[in-house]
Amino acid sequence: MPQPTRALLAAIDENNPDALSRLFAQGIDPAAEYDDHGWVDLVVFRAVDTGSVELVHPFIAAGLPVDAQVSGSPTMLSSAAMNGCLQLVEYLISAGADVNHSDRGDPNDPDDPAAGTVLTHALTCDEPLPIVSALLRAGADPNVSRPDGWTPLMLAAHGGDIKIVEALLAAGADVLAMKGTGNRRTNALRIAGSRHHRDLEALLRKHGAVDLTDGASEVAEWHAAHAVTAAPLLRREVPSPVEIDACTVRLITIVSDIADWLAAHDVGAAERLSSRRGAAAPAAVAELEAAVGETLPADFRSYLRLFGGSAGLEVFEYDGMSVPDILSCRRGLTDLLAEGAFDSAEPHELDPDNGSVRYRWWHPGWVPFAQDSGGNLHCIDLAPEPDGVRGQVFSWEIHGGPLPVRAPSFEQFLTAYRKRLLGGSAGWWVSACS
Fold first, then answer.
1. Coil/strand/helix, residue 285
2. Which pLDDT band holds residue 228 (cuts at 50, 70, 90)?
3. Helix H segments across 171-322?
4. Which of 97, 87, 143 is nearest to 120 (CA)?
5. Residue 414 DSSP SS3
6. Which domains are present in the chain?
7. Residue 134 near residue 86, CB atoms below 8 Å
């Protein structure tokens, strides 16, 4: 260890600020570093750890920037806040320390305690309220989150200190802020509830906090909004008979092309298609719409005129489903959703910001119509995100959840299947079905 560094450390250990001032007057660099068991840090942080303003002041007076730090370490203000040193915090603030500094920590260590904001660091000390109050008075933003998404309000809700929560709310903390995606989302209200801090729950609700939707509440809300007593058929325009008839004519042409191709390349598949023709009973379609709480798109209603009585059309290597099978499959998945089976599940192949398909494992507004032997599904989406289209088609995997949109409508999905058959080769079909 260099002699100047050793001299600075000795002055700090002896609690001798005058010695520090003399060393700096002799030209020793106030940004001197030392090796602390393999971790390189600034000597000043040894002074910060004492909590003594008198030991830190000579470094600042000698020209050390108040927000100086080495890579991966907190600033002096963050360290003082973590240690609960109110006088040192106030001194560093008066010296111009950045109260909104964010320490990124080790990017390879998600649990690195050095990662956080000055406020979130303050919340980890033994007596956080005085430190938090001082930081807020100095302009600390209560909505700057840690790298892992935790906001000061979330941490305070976890800790259960109602006075800190009140201080953060008075400073403008956002009660609606969330961290996480999909079914792993959480907010201050949910965190307070999970810790049984009922007084905090009431306070947060008073300031506008709302419950995040879990499986049970999502199903309950959907059913409440789409129940028969809520007149669901008035919520969406019912397709006109003329529209359904026109769709049916187009689908008949598409299915005929598929049947002709199969007759030439796979007699067994052609025979299965023929045997599966048959309209679903109007009462069965009405039962499906009542169960979902939404009218079906015209093209899918038209499809059920052609299939759905006994089984549906085989499409993209999936077996079509009859209306009773659709009802049973959807009911089973929706029941699991309501039971909370999917509350911790997160889609594996869907971008949380895709904007078209809801980032959920399952949703009661999804209607399966075909499945493979592994339980994977093709679905009609009656509850799209704002960038999506009602009636769009997407695939759903039993081990991966929803996938991106495959077609903006059922008719276009079936058209794409026909195009793949007619534009492909018999080799593709044999390979796919073997």
1. helix
2. low
3. 188-194, 198-206, 215-226, 241-265, 267-276, 282-292, 298-306
4. 143
5. helix
6. 3-212 (1.25.40.20), 233-433 (3.40.1580.10)
7. yes
Q: What is the pLDDT of residue 70?
A: 83
The dihedral formed by the CA atoms of 60, 62, 67 and 68, expressed in degrees to the nearest 10: -140
pTM attached to this predicted model: 0.58
Q: What is the pLDDT of residue 346?
A: 82
Rounded Cα distance, 203 and 73, in Å: 35
Task: Strands of 279-356 (E only): list them.
Answer: 319-320
Predicted pLDDT at 60: 96
Angstrom distance (rounded) from CA 397 to CA 160: 40
Return the bridge partners of 179, or none.
186
- Return d(Cα 50, Cα 57) in angstroms, integer: 12
Output the six-digit token pair for 311: 């089984």
Cα–Cα distance measured from residue 211 to residue 248, given in angstroms and rounded to the nearest whole number: 44
- Rounded Cα distance, 242 and 299, in Å: 12
Tokens of 330: 């959807």
The per-residue pLDDT for range 375-403, each reduced to its tens digit, is 999 999 999 999 999 999 999 999 999 99
